[in-house]
Amino acid sequence: MLSIGELARQAGLSTRTIRYYEELGILPPPERTAGGTRRYSRDYFFYLEGTRILKQLGFDLEEIAELGRFALTGATASSRTKAILQEKVAQLDHRIRVLKRLYALVSAAASSRADPDAPVPQLLRWISEKSSDEAAAAAGPEENGPDDHPRPRWS
């Protein structure tokens, strides 16, 4: 069993963060000694690592707390939990599409017949132009902006 200071130090967090996560319900209440001192099992590293990963995926602390309550109780997912997960799936789908597009642009730039010793601004201009051309062809008004005009290109 670890003290709050030991857990915080080993997890690379502050004791204040550990207490805050407990307050939000991200961490389950720890065992306490007769004197009220918090004692943490090694399982808390799992909770903290899960929290770190969920934060990296874009979940906010309130969402993480909701998901944590669901995970800790083993209860059936509430409509709120399902909504959080469905929204995150949509956000991740969008990020994946953006990253695939970026990958394709960078791959095309890397294999283009352009001068390999060309300065970086020329490469950026080339990527921007290819990106803008593709975006203009595929985007609807909501992608370009409220006035239906394409966003300006870099030059």
TrEMBL record:
Molecular function in Gene Ontology: DNA binding; DNA-binding transcription factor activity
Disordered: annotated segments: 131-155
Listed Pfam families: MerR (PF00376), MerR-DNA-bind (PF09278)
SMART domains reported for this sequence: HTH_MERR
Compositionally biased residues, Basic and acidic residues: 146-155
PANTHER family: HTH MERR-TYPE DOMAIN-CONTAINING PROTEIN (PTHR30204:SF93), REDOX-CYCLING DRUG-SENSING TRANSCRIPTIONAL ACTIVATOR SOXR (PTHR30204)
Protein name: HTH merR-type domain-containing protein
Biological classification of the source: Bacteria, Bacillati, Actinomycetota, Actinomycetes, Streptosporangiales
